[in-house]
Structure formats: structure tokens, C-alpha cells
Amino acid sequence: DAGVIQSPRHEVTEMGQEVTLRCKPISGHNSLFWYRQTMMRGLELLIYFNNNVPIDDSGMPEDRFSAKMPNASFSTLKIQPSEPRDSAVYFCASSFRVFGQGLISNQPQHFGDGTRLSIL
Amino acid sequence: GENVEQHPSTLSVQEGDSAVIKCTYSDSASNYFPWYKQELGKRPQLIIDIRSNVGEKKDQRIAVTLNKTAKHFSLHITETQPEDSAVYFCAAGGGSYIPTFGRGTSLIVHP
Questions:
Q1: What is the rounded distance in angstroms from the CA atom of residue A52 to the CA atom of residue A34?
Q2: What is the pLDDT of residues B7-46, one digit of tens each?
């Protein structure tokens, strides 16, 4: 099992540039999450996909942020234009959700190694 | 929505001592409570989880307890070792399956 794969691991770019972060979830997982982690705000959920469909994007900071999941094995988080305050570690996580009633509907999330983003 | 409070924010113990981290949640519909450990510069990793039909779960030196009535759950680490030093996050999730994380506890174990 390769785990959740994120790229790049580090990104340094200038303010105003477009940034694209990539994520490959664990094969067979049907839920995908994008998080942002900073010292000030902790671990924030940005967006959540279920079966490739965005379910909740209320955590996306503003229109400069967008996320897509064109298929079950790939997702992107894009920031355009980037700003210094976007500097953070961005994590992707995936999980398998069991649908239906009952106490087994929640399963643990598996996190990728993260992308450390620095906007100068 | 769910609100998760985690305490303390920092915990310093001597090697061999026990450590306890506490979390409270607000949504009575929450039924899944995972704990994650994040070492410096690394990803959060699940260390233990508990579901609402169980009051306690143990795995070697770590245990989690859940009090649904009071809406709080705790992580207990016994015989702490320096490699237990990390940030620990609790989370609470329900039927909507959007887990809410606590702000984290930085555990420092002094040799």
C-alpha cells in the first residue's frame, strides 16, 4: 500500500503566481479531504469529496482557492493568485466511507506527507 | 456544527510518567472519535480510535475513554518515552462524516 501521495513536497513561489498541489488517494478509498495547517489556525478542513463529488467546500478561504477531483485517483488544489498568507502545510487525506446507517459509517483518515508551501 | 475543545495545549512530563489529554465535543450525534499523532515535520497518523458503542479501548501503552453523557473523551499514555513527544490531535465525527479536529496538544517527554 503506497499510502496517500502528495506532490510537490515543497513549493516556494512568488506572490501572484499560480500554485497547483496534487494528491493521489489510496486505491479503493471513496472520500478525499484537503486540509491546511498553520500554527495560528491549526488543522483546517478546506474541502471534502465523496465519490469524486465536492460535498462541502465551506472551508475554502476565498475564490482564489479551487479544488477538483476528475477521477477516483487524482485531485488538485489550486491557488490563483497566491498570496504570502497562503503559506502553510497542505495535507490531503483519504478514507473509505461505509454508506448507510450504523456505527461503522466513519473510518479513519490516512494523510499524505503534505506540501509545505511558501509564498514570498 | 461540531465543536471540539482540546486541553491542555502543552503537556510536559518526565519519562515514565503518565500523560492524559482531554477533549470535549458539542454534537451528540458524533459517534467516532479518532486520535492522531503528528511528529515534527511529518503527517498526522492515527494511533487509536473509539466508537460510541464502547466506553474504553486499549492498545499497549495507550488507551482512550469516552463518556457520551458528558460528551468528553480522553487519551491516556502510560510509561511515557521520549519518542512519544509529538503533537496529538483528537477529532469527533458523526453521520455527516466531516470530522472536526481539536487544536492539538504538544506533548514533551523529558528523558
A1: 13
A2: 999 999 999 999 999 999 998 888 889 999 999 999 999 9
